[in-house]
From TrEMBL:
Residues 5-210 form the N-(5'phosphoribosyl) anthranilate isomerase (PRAI) domain. One of its GO terms (biological process) is L-tryptophan biosynthetic process. InterPro entries: Aldolase_TIM, PRAI_dom, RibuloseP-bd_barrel, TrpF_fam. It is an enzyme of class 5 (isomerase). Belongs to the TrpF family. The gene is trpF. It comes from Terrihabitans soli. Pathway: Amino-acid biosynthesis; L-tryptophan biosynthesis; L-tryptophan from chorismate: step 3/5. Its EC number is 5.3.1.24. SUPFAM superfamilies: Ribulose-phoshate binding barrel. This is N-(5'-phosphoribosyl)anthranilate isomerase.
Amino acid sequence: MSTEVKICGLSTIETLDAALDAGADHVGFVFFDKSPRNIGLEQGAALVRHARGSATTVALVVDPSSERLDEIMSVVKPDAIQFHGSESPAVLNFFHARWGEAEIWKAIPVSSTEDLGALAVYLSITNRILFDARPPKGAERPGGHGQVFDWSILRDLDPELGFMLSGGLTPDNVADAIRLTHASAVDVSSGVESAPGIKDIGKIRAFIQAVRTVAREKVKL
């Protein structure tokens, strides 16, 4: 099965179209004011409408209030919410009870095998788990730093879990990451940018092409 691709932190129709035309399976939009990729609700709504039916639309949030979640779901109307902070299972269950039609994705920061213990907490209440590099000490945001973690930590995980790999992925290293982890999906943001928050169309295309190359290798085997 082909590895799925998510291009996150999109903010313009031009770069969104580049991702969709190149074959992205999921497109992500950031609603976190400390991120250089943060966008407003109306801007997000326009991008989600544009992508509807072509890819899964994902709204990334970090420890949001219930009021903020209601705003995003009511105005933006994404297919999924990606919880990228320290949200508890109770928060995710509350969201599911209120917005049951939306998928729940949860990012887990990883720097050692001990971090995989969070799987037991979140796996049963999410549609997808995303493993991201643990942010640098003192960082104001939990992701988008372009840092890679030790992928071998995930080597023995069952691919049937359907986990997504993130953290420092680029067009140059994503193929190796997939070969080592057997991740069913990969997520990229800073790795396809020319500057923080500025997506590079050429890098978007190169990233997706690199992922598809691994899929063709599997077919030959």
